[in-house]
Amino acid sequence: MSGSLNKVLLIGNLGRDPELKSTPSGQTVARFSVATTETWKNQSGEKQSKTEWHNIVVWGKQAEIAEKYLRKGKQVMIEGRIQYREYTDQAGVKKTACDIRCDNFVMLGRMEDGNRDSGSYGGKNSGGQDFEDHGAPSPAGGNNSFPDDDIPF
Questions:
Q1: CB atoms within 10 A of CB 17
Q2: pLDDT tens column, 108-121
Q3: Which of 13, 86, 107, 124 has the least CB density, counted as fewest CB within 10 Å?
Q4: Ramachandran sector of residue 68 (left: φ over 0; alpha: ψ -120 to 50; beta: rest)
Q5: Is the pTM of this model over 0.90?
Q6: End-to-end CA distance of the chain
Q7: CA 127/CA 104 separation, integer angstroms
């Protein structure tokens, strides 16, 4: 087998609001961080945890949606791939950074009462699926008119 796979799936909380910029060619790009936390018990039975921070990069229409609806602290699922890039810092030292190139994201958690921008968005994901007010793909163009309390999980 000669194939390869570069796939990342993260569920975590935004460490900062997305920052939207445009390249000289006019493409939009958003950058933000996501924290994932692993918890376990050590040999003494004490709870331990470790948080990892991930740099997320989103391009195009997805970047605009991210900037509009994602907020610091909100839970999100990121689907994408690992990309490395080299850059030179202000002191002239060459460095390497690891980014997660986001192909798709899903906002998780509950929509806050009275604040529709906190948990929902209208638009399309990278697969062209329509998204309704609850942030979920609409089945065959239907309307997801059920309240969040009716979801069994």
A1: 15
A2: 987 654 444 434 34
A3: 86
A4: alpha
A5: no
A6: 39
A7: 8
Distant-in-sequence, close-in-space partners of 150: CB < 8 Å, separation ≥ 6:
none
Alpha-carbon 75 to chain mean position: 8
pLDDT tens column, 26-52: 999 999 999 999 999 999 999 999 999
Predicted confidence (pLDDT) at residue 61 exceeds the cutoff of 60: yes
The three-state DSSP-derived secondary structure of the chain is: CCCCCCCEEEEEEECCCCEEEECCCCCEEEEEEEEEEEEEECCCCCEEEEEEEEEEEEEHHHHHHHHHHCCCCCEEEEEEEEEEEEEECCCCCEEEEEEEEEEEEEECCCCCCCCHHHCCCCEECCCCCEECCCCCECHHHCCCCCCHHHCCC
